[in-house]
Amino acid sequence: MLTKYLLSAEPSEFSDSCLFLSAFRLQRAYCPFQVVCIKAIRSIEEGERKRVDKVLSWNTGTILFYIQGKLYPHHHFSYRPPTQFVATAVS
């Protein structure tokens, strides 16, 4: 499947990051990053967390996420930034 996209006439480029618009700013996520499925697609159910290994973008604006060796359209997923919560003992 990946070879079909790479051999297409349309220019493509793999990237190690993706920009996401959050409520207050643009955020760049570097691969691998986690996404949550918001619309079931193929074997991925809604609500599942998946790791994006690469991002494939075309000049037409199409963005595909490379997840577990397969390409998926980005609009089926939502980015959830990692939390950095650390609990320490309070005396």
TrEMBL record:
This is Uncharacterized protein.
